[in-house]
Design brief:
The chain is of the alpha+beta class and 360 residues long. The protein folds into 2 domains: 74 residues, no CATH class; 260 residues, Gcn5-related N-acetyltransferase (GNAT) (Aminopeptidase). The chain has 12 helices and 15 strands. Strand 10, helix 8 and strand 11 form a beta-alpha-beta unit.
Length: 360
């Protein structure tokens, strides 16, 4: 009877079970090395996450949203709800009074961030939930298991848990995906709407970071909360030596005609130069040049832009070529590209070249 050894392998935020085959009678290891249990299932997951159908894009198929680890063929166990692999015990990135910005440290905190995203995207805004999202009341997708999650927590607003001690309320979140992690897995979320690979190929020596899923609870949409989020991102950028930030930013609504003013403003005044330009994927691209430069009222256009996009522009960000309508979330997306070297010195000086302004 063959005897097998099983080992649990932990990659950043991903748990895997691996079967190690014993050697044959001659002592030579069999096969091509360790074989991952559930390998066929994982290949299916990658195929689904790469597709653009609703299941592949929005159904949480990794262990973080669903909490399942393949142990034996046909047998899974619940994932631990303890600390995330690779996140330091002291994950704080800064603090202002009772508000602290830090990385999510446990699977439970990621789930609470997903619940916050559900509250903002699905209850407050116009995102359309599938059955699983309605049941779980969390905005979750396969990329959550690969990302670092920045949180703003309020230590003056404690939330009680069914089991365990009370914890500070999560009031804001941002999702970050480093290039080194994306390269080992399914790539970037933005690649589903924009040809981001062309930019990566043009800048092979630079280190990229994808930003996404930004949201803050209404009572906390203040300068202090936004400042803490940006301080957290700036600290993270310095720690990981990031050269370029990018990601999708959204305008509310799916009718480009009604968004002609802000889209045209971005096209004429914030369009990326050729070396930084990315294009929306053919078949999804919506023309942003809907009004002539002369017909634009810049003041009205800026007023029509979401605060997040205006914040990116103040930092020195560019906008890609073409918008993409996201009917699932009820938005029209644009691609933001922000080279760290191009960030306004005003903001570098404000937060500190060593991110010391709000250091915890």
């Amino acid at each position: 009877m063959s005897c097998y050894r099983y080992a649990f392998v932990m990659e950043p935020s991903v748990f895997r079970a691996i079967r190690i085959d014993p050697p044959d009678s001659s002592g030579t290891p069999r096969g091509n090395g360790p074989r991952r249990l559930g390998e066929r299932r994982m290949k299916t997951v990658r195929t689904q996450s790469a597709s653009k159908n609703l299941v592949g894009r929005f159904l949480p198929v990794r262990h973080l949203p669903l909490g399942q680890i393949p142990l034996l063929p046909g047998i899974t166990v619940k994932a631990p709800v303890g600390r995330l692999v690779g996140v330091p015990t002291d994950a704080s990135l800064g603090r202002i009074g009772p508000l602290e910005v830090r990385l999510a440290r446990t699977v439970g905190e990621v789930k609470r961030a997903q619940a916050l995203r559900y509250q903002v995207f699905y209850e407050e805004m116009a995102a359309v939930a599938d059955a699983r999202t309605l049941i779980t009341r969390r905005d979750a997708d396969p990329f959550d298991a690969l990302c670092d999650h920045i949180l703003v927590v309020d230590h003056d607003a404690m939330t009680s848990r069914k089991f365990g001690r009370a914890e500070p309320r999560i009031v804001g979140t941002y999702r970050l995906l480093r290039q080194e992690v994306a390269d080992r897995h399914d790539g970037f979320y933005t690649a589903g709407e924009y040809d981001i690979q062309s930019l990566l190929d043009r800048k092979p020596g630079l280190n990229f970071l994808e930003l996404g899923r930004s949201c803050v609870l209404p009572p906390y949409r203040t300068k202090r909360t936004v400042e803490l989020l940006w301080h957290g991102i700036w600290t993270y950028v310095l720690r990981h030596r990031i050269d370029v930030m990018f990601g999708c930013a959204s305008l509310e609504g799916t009718d480009p005609h009604r968004l002609a003013l802000p889209l045209s403003f971005l096209h004429h005044h914030a369009r990326a130069p050729d070396e930084w330009r990315v294009k929306a994927i053919a078949g999804q691209a919506v023309d942003m040049n809907r009004m002539s430069r002369e017909a634009l009222d810049p003041k009205q256009a800026l007023h029509a832009l979401p605060p997040l996009i205006k914040g990116y522009l103040r930092l020195g960000a560019y906008v890609g070529d073409g918008a993409v309508v996201d009917h699932q979330f009820g938005t029209t997306d644009v691609c933001i590209v922000l080279p760290v070297s191009g960030i306004s010195s005003r903001y570098v000086n404000y937060y500190g070249a060593d991110a010391s302004r709000h250091a915890a």
